[in-house]
Specification:
The protein is α+β, with helices and mostly antiparallel strands and 111 residues long. The protein contains 4 helices and 5 strands, in the order E-E-H-H-H-E-E-E-H.
Length: 111
């Protein structure tokens, strides 16, 4: 599977996922409404705080980011993903949009 794309409009918490991202997460687009909180709930609890800190830092400083974390799928399986992205700011310097790509790297992380 190739790269899955996503976009988060920070101000209104509107998130757009590509079909590939729903597939990685094992979710159906008509049954799942992406939001930041809903995304966090799909992250393995042991990884969640670290990812929240990385996202918060990216929103603060506007630098590109790159991280890996485990995904908990509804069927009980676990995937490992790599995500990278950037933050877009408005003319006042406020973070308004975060966008990037996610790749399923489970096969590289399992023996």
């Amino acid at each position: 599977m190739g790269e899955a794309r996503w976009e988060w409009q920070v101000q209104n918490d509107h998130i757009i996922w590509s079909p590939e991202l729903y597939e990685i997460y094992g979710l159906e687009p008509r049954e799942f409404r992406p939001s930041y909180d809903a995304y966090l709930q799909r992250i393995h609890p042991a990884d969640r705080k670290r990812i929240q800190m990385i996202v918060a830092q990216a929103l603060r400083d506007g630098r590109p980011f790159d991280f890996e974390h485990r995904v908990l799928r509804p069927d009980g399986t676990e995937r490992v993903v790599s995500a990278r992205g950037e933050v877009e700011r408005d003319k006042h310097g406020r973070a308004v949009r975060m966008f990037g790509v996610t790749r399923d790297i489970t096969s590289r992380k399992t023996p």
